[in-house]
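Training component of the fellowship. As part of building independent skills, the fellow (R.M.) carried out the full modelling exercise for a liganded target. The chosen ligand was zinc ion. The inputs are recorded below so that the supervisory panel can assess the work.
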Amino acid sequence: MVKVFHEGDLIIYQNGDRFEIGKIKRLTDDGAFVWYSSGETAAKTSFSDMHPLKNAHVITETSLGGMDGKKRKILVHGAMVYGCQDCGSRWMMYLEKGLEEEGDPNRKPVPFGIMCPYCKGFHAFDISGYLKIPEKGYVELPKDASCFENLPDRDCGKPLISPYMKRLEDDEIPSARIFKDR
Ligand SMILES: [Zn+2]
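Fellow's submitted model of the complex:
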């Protein structure tokens, strides 16, 4: 069996007849640095002692790696403004790599309507269409921003709402200073 590992994956570490759960911080040629505790120190572990955890996606949060381990690096290429028909709130939803991406034959869609994080109603819709980030290629998800995540076991983007995201005012939608239309 070919074992495939990615940074951020949860794994099982086998040491004789003992097993531990860990989270991959960084891959190297012959193994990975893995967090086994809530501290930020990762231990070098060889691939032969590591096993992928098939249902790792059911564990949505761990304290492995402390604050360092919480961050999954999300690369985005664009965004959409979502607006709530019930309470009028508007906010940016960034798009992770592989979602709604022009020219990518394997691209996945994002839901047109989602739950409004402000009033919890189900009438928040895309009101801007696709907005491309001006930088070439991909950038890291801005701090405190919300996005659609591209998860391997989903065929559609999953909303990841940041409690610290900014509600947009009228003059910020969509901001031509940050975004330009495709
Ligand atoms: Zn609302």
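The panel noted the following from the submitted structure. Residues 10-58 form a domain with the SH3 type barrels. fold (CATH 2.30.30). The longest strand covers residues 18-27.
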